[in-house]
Amino acid sequence: MGGRTVRRATVAALGLGLLLGACTAPAPPPDSAQVEEWVGILYPLPKVERFSPPVSARLYAYAGLALYEGLRRADPDAGSLGGRVGGLDPIPEPPEGRHDWSVVAAEAERQVLSGMIEAYALPSTMVQVDTIAEGQIERRRRAGVDEKTVERSIAYAGRIAEVVLARATSDGFSETRRRPYDLPAGRGIWTNTTTLEEYAPISASEASQFVRRDNPSAALVPGVANARQMVLDRPSASSEPVGNINPLQPLEPHWGEITPFGFTDFGSCAPPEPHPWSLDRDSPFWAEVMAVYETSVGLTEEEREIAYFWADNPGSTGTPPGHWVAIMRQMIPQLGLPPVEAARMFAVTSLAMHDAFVSTWEVKYRTMVERPITFIRDHIDPEWDAAVVTPPFPEYTSGHSVVSGAAAEALTALLGEVAFADSTHVASGLSPRPFSSFLEAAEEAAISRLYGGIHYPMAIDDGVRQGRCLTRVLLDRLGSAVPVGPTPELPPRTERSAAGGSDSGRAPADR
Predict the structure, then answer these.
(1) Cis peptide preceding 397, ω within 30 of 0
(2) Cα separation of 354 and 261, whole Å?
(3) Residue 505: how many other CB atoms lie within 10 Å
(4) pLDDT tier at 314 (50, 70, 90 boundaries)?
(5) Are the C-beta atoms of 248 and 241 separated by less than 8 Å?
(6) 222 HSE (CA, 13 A, CB side)
(7) I need a surface site. Which of 5, 64, 203, 421 has the fewest CB within 10 A?
(8) Is the pLDDT score of 15 beyond 50?
(9) What angle do helix axes 34-42 and 53-71 make, rounded to 10 degrees?
(10) Given its phi and psi angles, is residue 244 left (phi above 0), alpha (psi -120 to 50 degrees) or beta?
């Protein structure tokens, strides 16, 4: 009798154990497609909404924070960026109970993107953001995540989004909108040469991107979201200027006031002062000008192709930071990056690019270096033209060079030396370009601005180093939260004499 009682108790205990085990079944692994989907849709978003490069980099940085902080707890070793980068408070701990981190990431990304762009974004853009988030959350339900866990995860995502959006609200962006700017005047001071016609959207292949609204490929498909739909949903005629950008005015003259994530002192990675403007043919500045002019008149077909490949004009591409976002998207399947590692790559590299624009814009509007097109037409060849449209902001340092140096330094530290073929502009008819490393790609992106006729060598060389330095400052600040590997040695800072020729010097800026 006693034996049967023991056996019955054992069977009952086993049944209860099985029942409890079913209630605490292991969570499904993170959504392997999640990060690639978000990164893929974020590349064309600045094109659709006509964002400038600095505004695009800012959007990517906050999107990266939301995605990483939502997903990182799927890896016990992944540290938070909250409380480490400038202006971002610590991310609150999740409440008791099970959470699905893929659901948290999807909802946090949805809320942060919506909070940043809903005031002016196209309805179709908002639909795309919602569609991706809802689709990813639904996949988690199908993977076995119960509804209580989904609800709990969505609630926690809101707390993450609050912290990220609070940082965005206080970073100085809103204060710089439509603030007046008095452009200083004087010999050698930058003047804007951009025309409205030059900023009509054209693709990287110089082909029209006009798409009729009755074209079936431009329609939104419920439950489906992809980059092609997002791009084609906003057709543009050849006469339509870039929205959110007035090319007749200096672009973002106050961007140097935006709060950076990594550096706290502009001097920490400051480039040397540019060569003083000069009409002396023996002066360093004249040599810079002639480097641009002689390169342009002897431009090879490959150099022209490189100039177009990296042009990344706003309104017709994802902008220069978006080009590196497209490269990051390629890395996810090429390297088989796990979701948390992919999200960390996107977040850290985007933070680095954000800081690159803050830093180089401060230098641009402080030094006010005249563009090659102005000097060459005024003093060398009045009929000269650049291969690439000269943008509406000062020359030094090269934004392409700074942001590419920053992105390449981050990717090298996070992923190592990786050979890849950059296929960013395949859809525009440009062949992929092979590179042995991220830094090699950054060097080509930088030199493309010399081939394009819009930057002097000093702005390019100093810019790459400036960007790489900024990333190192950011990585030092992140510390153990972001494990990194060795990176190539940073070139020494150029030291430049302030002496110029007999006609050198720049009139003091009245700012």
Answers:
(1) yes
(2) 8
(3) 15
(4) confident
(5) no
(6) 0
(7) 5
(8) no
(9) 170
(10) left
Strand spans (E) along 280-435: 420-422, 433-435
Q: Indicate the CATH number of 28-173+189-209+216-481 among 1.10.443.10, 2.40.240.20, 1.10.606.20, 1.10.3470.10.
A: 1.10.606.20
- DSSP per-residue string spanning 135-200: HHHHHHHHTT--HHHHHHHHHHHHHHHHHHHHHHHTSSHHHHTT-------STTB------TGGGS
Q: What is the CA radius of gyration of the chain?
A: 25
- Residue 486 CA to residue 3 CA, distance in Å, equals 66
The answer to whether 453 touches 292, Cβ cutoff 8 Å, is yes
Angstrom distance (rounded) from CA 203 to CA 397: 25
- Spatial separation of the C-alpha atoms in residues 323 and 430, rounded to whole Å: 13
Three-state DSSP state, 292: helix
Q: Per this entry, what is the length of the chain?
A: 511
Choose among 345, 389, 288: nearest CA to 67: 345
Cα separation, 241 vs 30, in Å, equals 42
Gap between the Cα atoms of 193 and 63, Å rounded: 34
Question: Which two tokens mark 111?
Answer: 């809320």
Average pLDDT over residues 219-242: 39
pLDDT tens per residue, range 51-66: 899 999 999 999 999 9
Main-chain dihedrals φ then ψ at residue 317, nearest 5 degrees: -145, -175
One-letter amino acid identity for 442?
A
d(CA 107, CA 160): 10
Beta bridge partners, 369, equal 189
Domain coordinates in residue numbering, the chain: 28-173+189-209+216-481
Between strands 420-422 and 433-435, the pairing is antiparallel
What's the token pair of residue 469? 């330095």
Three-state DSSP at 17 gives helix
For the chain, the straight-line distance linking the first and the last C-alpha, in angstroms and rounded, comes to 98
Instruction: Look at residues 354, 366, 460 and name the one whose alpha carbon lies nearest to residue 53.
Output: 354
Question: Nearest Cα to 170, choosing from 64, 108, 92, 88?
Answer: 88
Query: How is residue 365 written in tokens?
Result: 């509007």
What is the pLDDT at residue 499? 45
| Residue 170, amino acid | S
Could you tell me which of 374, 370, 377 has the C-alpha nearest to residue 458? 370
* Of 295, 441, 455, 278, nearest in space to 364 by CA: 455
